[in-house]
Amino acid sequence: MPAVIMILIFSIFPLIASLILSLSRVRLRAGGYDVRFVGLRNFEKQLFGSEQFHFLGTFTSISLLGWVFIIAMGALLIRWFSVYLRGPVVVIGLIGRIITASMILALSVLLAATLLSGNQFGTLGVTLFYVLVGSAIQFLIGLGLAIICAQPIWGRTFFRVVFFLPMMITPIGIGYAFRMMADTTKGPFSPVWQFFGLRDFAWAADAWTARSFIVIGDSWQWIPFIFVVLLAALENVPRDMIEAGHVDGANGWQIFKEITWPSIAPVAATVMLIRAIEAFKLVDLPNIMTAGGPGISTESMTLQAFFAWRAPDLAQSAAVSYLLLFIAVVLCVSFFNLVILKRRAAIA
Amino acid sequence: MTAANIGADVAVERRAQRLSILALNKSFGPVHVVKDLTIDVAPGEFLVLLGPSGCGKTTALRMIAGLEVADSGRVILGDTDVTEALPKYRDVAMVFQSYALYPHKTVAENIGFPLKVRGVPLEQRSAAVRDAAAQVHMEEYLERYPRQLSGGQRQRVALARAIIRRPSVFLMDEPLSNLDAKLRGYMRAELKHMQHELGVTTVYVTHDQVEAMTLAHRVAIMDQGVLQQIGKPREVYDNPANLFVAGFMGSPSMNFIDGRVENGRFESDGVSLPLLNGAPAGPVVMGFRPEDATVVDPGMGQFDAKVFTAELTGDVTLVTIVIGDKSLAVKMPKEYEVDFDSAVAVSLPLQNAFLFDAHTGNRLPAQFALPPGQ
Amino acid sequence: MTTDDLTQIPSRPTGIARLFEAPQMGKMSPAGCVIVYSLLFIWTGFVLFPLYWIAITSVKLPIDVNSGPAYLPWIDFTPNLHAWRDLVVLEWAETLKPYRNSVIIAFFSTIACMFIGSMAAYALARIEYKPKFGTILMFVLLMAAASVSVGVWGVDWRLASASAAAIFVLLARALGRRFKRSVGNSDILFWMISQRILPPVVTVVPVYMMFQSVRLLDTQFAIILTYTVVNLPIVVWLMYDFFSGIPKDLEESAQLDGASQFTIFYEIVLPLARTGLAATTLLVMIFAWNEYIVALFLSTTKAQTMPILVAAMNAGEKGVLWWKMSVVIIIMIIPVVLMALVLQRFISRGVLLGAVKG
Ligand SMILES: Nc1ncnc2c1ncn2[C@@H]1O[C@H](COP(=O)(O)OP(=O)(O)OP(=O)(O)O)[C@@H](O)[C@H]1O
Ligand SMILES: [Mg+2]
Fold first, then answer.
1. Nearest bound ligand to CA B51?
2. Which ligand is nearest to the Cα of residue B28, counting in written order?
3. pLDDT tens, C305-314?
4. Hey, which CATH number is domain A121-347, 3.30.450.40, 1.10.3720.10, 2.60.40.2310, 1.20.120.10?
5. Chain A interface disruption, residue of B68, B113, B129, B174, most A CBs within 10 A
6. A29, A209, C137, C178: least buried by Cβ within 10 Å?
7. ipTM of this model?
8. Would you state the CATH architecture of domain B19-243?
9. In C, which residues are within 8 Å of A152 by CB distance?
10. What is the pTM of this model?
11. Which residues in C lie closer than 8 A to residue B87 (C-beta atoms)?
């Protein structure tokens, strides 16, 4: 198993090394670097110290809306647990669910304390925005396109090839292309901006428009991937199952809901996992389109780590990466265990 | 005999519908799969579509269901023309050759699906599911998934999914092909009884002629997309319209001897038989069924032959004899014993022998002259 | 039977509803047709417009770019090949170097990745592995100890890894016997894909230091090796699905026919997994071709790849050289499209990644 060992070496080694880094202070000197062990100081700085505003966001008291949201999420989680506890309980499953739930709860509190209370988002919030909102939009559009292209339409090969094109372009090129496209004075849409009297409006100066533009660019690049995978999945659904549905008298929506969707759900879940994993790592687009700005409002965690590395502050960079890794792994593993395995079990 | 009065002796329920297909044609690219197929199925009739593999039976059935759109021709159900209608407006139920079970649904959910999409409430539905499952003996398996079932069990689930509703027409594509011999015999009886009870017009596809003989009110025999003959099983068996039907019906199949008509006699090497009414001279094929002939001592029959093998198949002994380079099968009582390679003769009641045109394959009206005493 | 009355045939739709109902199987309803085609064309526009913009920008003069939008060549502006001439003729040497680097790196890392990855996937799909929990744990701990000693106490890396390997071999059996719990193939598989969760920035700093300590920074080899490892999980994951989709009977029957393991793999398994191989190759190649961060960390001058060149067009004092950058993007797409067309043959029915389902 050369591959396993190779991955083991290459992945475990950097993991350990960056763990060490994240626990130390690194100082570059001519021809090398000094490493000094400082314990959890780096993480402390991110979570509670001088970098807190950067990573988590700024806090004031939580608004009413924030409280409502926290309570709603808490109630949902309690319900989820009570449903689970009624069934057969396995220790590992229970522990896993507790970890998942606390992570979700912590993130909801964060969301409530920053965004819903009118405060500035940190890179964590921005990353989650890219992951959750971006992936959701991309999934819906990708699925829609795949369903359309699975129809008996004229010119399907043409559309398939065209829809796949964006996958082939380097993300950094996409970043520049979209920066060009979004330019309010020289870009192709400047007449549109002018028409709305927004000539001097700089989308990059407003946090939400900047984030939306990044999501648009990200979608342009990633919808093809989701589209192609889901299209393949749709075409793999046995024809006779759908025909049986027709003969049994189901209408189009019923056939989708009862037959097509359950058959493609495992693929859909897997593709979403891959997409989410990649979205956690989004860095090129915000770096190029906005350089994380205005302020830090489009800065993803990977970008933060990248900036820290460039500073150069290797220890902070590693610490941010570790935090990202921790959050991503908990969310992805939860997703894998609670959604994908269940979906697979239902079919295989 | 017309379709109408065949259906008449069947218990006809109010939902039973007449199904007419008129001059249906279907090609896949250059391949003409179904050619001018015209069949009239009476209300409540059990029609079996019989033919060898690849002859277009499934395609014909799919056109009736509306899954395939005919190139030309019409499908009429009751008094509506449904040629262009979507399957769901045709009120047909179909058992697919490949079962087409939904892998993510349990057996119960599979069977109940047709009712679910019609919005039948859950309690009524589960009662109906249990009934249908009982009819195919699948009650114990209701909570399983299709992947946990054997081929025959899956087939029975597919059957139950069709019979749970009371459609105007049942379409069944080889629904018993995967069952073991015993279960198949049992299900055959069950199906026949059920169809009689419900009186639902049924089109049943198979390539098993025993199934066709036992189940059908009428059998339609297809070959290469063309309807060869349609009629009651007896009629088709006793009065085959052409070489294909004669050869396809019956097991082992009919014996054929190539020969010629010359001077009012059928001539082949080793065989010479007198004909009664003058058939036109030319190449012909003589045929007779294995059970119609008997093996007798040399010189006692119409022609002499040599025994090749004799096999006891259970209720009969199947004797294979050779004349020149032809081998023929004859069914004898199971007590019959004979040595291999011994010289024998074949005695054939000539009213049971058929004559076919060698070129067209069509049955010739010619009759053999009966020897005195027969 | 009570369900009798409940299972009436729905009547045919009338009026407006007819617009939304297909006239027959395999056709689309009139309204559906309109909606579907308008959506398709809207999306085609959305996909193609940025590409079109890149294409026309590559033939614009700086003044055309900077003086506001110009949409149609020959009407809004006069196309000029100056950027093409600069990059493809005048500075050809500077363009060629990263181009060649990119080709070499993408090519070799894809080959290595596919070779190692598909063998590993095949092994996982056919052989039940039961590595002992304790063994794995010890391996990880030893790795940790080795890297700590190298990184923190400055022990020579060769010495550290050699002694770690020695201790591992010595203790492996004993520990394996002690801790009987083992992990299965599915655990290995999930662990593989979980490697993708690692953001490149987590891995790239230590990898940077690692290559620095062995003096391999800014070499093609370092980047090839890194890409191979980074993309291996994808290959293993996708190919595992393709391989396990091949019926075992086929291989068993070949075995009975007297074929060797090697023959079986090459004559039966590989041809059957061709779709998967083609699709995965394409995907991995695209990833390697377009990767930016790792290349940025691991290369300075000699081993620069094309994405770095794209970024470099932004770095000058004169601001972003849009026209040049567009040219670079275009010449970067060309090989991928060619590759996709070549592999397209094997990816019939768009089965690309069709086996993502498990
Ligand atoms: N979708 C299709 N495209 C092309 N040819 C087809 C298609 N479906 C069926 N055929 C061809 O049409 C012919 C008839 O097929 P059909 O499935 O109707 O046969 P069948 O009588 O049901 O055979 P069997 O008893 O084996 O099920 C076959 O030669 C088959 O190859
Ligand atoms: Mg068939």
1. 1
2. 1
3. 888 877 777 7
4. 1.10.3720.10
5. B113
6. A29
7. 0.79
8. 3-Layer(aba) Sandwich (3.40)
9. 26-28
10. 0.81
11. 25
